[in-house]
Write a structure and sequence with these properties.
Length: 319
């Protein structure tokens, strides 16, 4: 479908992404300079304060289409519905395998951000430069918001990781008026001494652009940002999450960004730049593509998504 629907931050598709993708992957150092923020951070990307940010007319708080596995249901019924369907299902000795491990889940955006545009547009220090506190996120053409999606997947993921014995913390749980800001999102993971942090998003690119991608922190050392210690372990975390996500959901890596492996490195995301613990973002699909949207709005599919992310985290934490 076209992008004619209500847009939040990014009314533009990413017409040049395919062409740019290899440049981004191969020369991430130059990503910011090559692309410019406005070009890069178009639709719905994480911290995607693109040119259209601040538009907040879309119904961010809309709940997911009901299909029997609501966000909260995902913790109970949803989690059970997924049991037995994959190797990640908790059973036997695997249950406590993550005891002592701390995982921070960062559900991208906030369902109420659109009501606090002044606050979320406030610039915060991300080490390399200053950037908007947070953004509203994108939505499907039918109005299912990215913020609702990220929270739902986060709840399902939390349940799966807790079944494994992990200590799980969310950066937000729909329990605050907006945000948190991207710098605080990073600090929450740092303060928790998290063994792994995953920031959950869904993209807002053009119709026909499909698939998931995982975003790794690039090496930056500027101001309060120093990712040198986390680049390596984050790459491993991202590789595992990407592989398990693809297998669990049956979806392919992005056909519009990355080199076909669903892996992208960025240096312009405060949530990564300011992290001192292993951290990746995952863009689970493209909300603006109708085929991807059909998946993203399915509770059963979101359970698979959470399962895949969980299995990647488990593999990482087990070393
Ligand atoms: Zn996002």
């Amino acid at each position: 479908m076209s992008n004619a629907g209500p847009d939040f931050d990014s009314p533009h598709p990413r017409p040049s992404r395919k062409r740019r993708a290899s440049a981004v992957a191969l020369a991430v150092v130059a990503a910011g300079a090559l692309l410019g923020w406005g070009a890069y951070a178009t639709l719905g990307g994480p911290e995607d304060g693109g040119p259209g940010r601040g538009k907040s007319t879309a119904p961010s708080g809309r709940t997911a289409p009901s299909d029997g596995t609501s966000a909260n249901g995902g913790i109970g019924a949803g989690a059970h519905s997924g049991s037995g369907s994959g190797p990640g299902s908790a059973s036997g000795s695997a249950e406590a395998s993550l005891k002592g491990k701390v995982v921070v889940i960062d559900p991208g955006h906030n369902p109420a951000n659109h009501r606090h545009t002044a606050e979320i547009n406030r610039k915060v220090d991300i080490g390399t430069n200053r950037k908007e506190c947070d953004t509203t996120g994108t939505s499907t053409n039918s109005g299912y918001s990215e913020a609702a999606f990220t929270l739902d997947v986060a709840h399902r993921l939390r349940a799966l990781l807790q079944q494994r014995g992990a200590t799980v913390k969310l950066t937000q749980d729909g329990d605050r008026p907006y945000g948190p800001c991207v710098d605080e999102r990073a600090r929450i993971g740092n303060a928790a001494h998290a063994d792994a942090v995953v920031s959950i998003h869904a993209d807002g690119s053009g119709s026909g652009n499909r698939g998931y991608h995982v975003i790794l922190p690039g090496e930056v050392r500027s101001g309060g940002a120093d990712t040198r210690a986390i680049v390596g372990p984050s790459r491993e975390l991202g590789r595992l999450v990407s592989a398990d996500f693809g297998r669990a959901t049956g979806t392919a890596p992005s056909n519009y960004i990355g080199d076909g492996d669903g892996i992208v490195t960025r240096k312009d995301l405060g949530g990564l730049n300011l992290s001192t613990v292993p951290k990746v973002f995952i863009e689970c699909g493209n909300m603006r593509d109708t085929k991807d949207a059909a998946l993203l709005t399915s509770g059963a599919w979101r359970q698979k998504a959470a399962q895949g992310i969980s299995e990647g985290i488990v593999s990482f934490l087990r070393g």
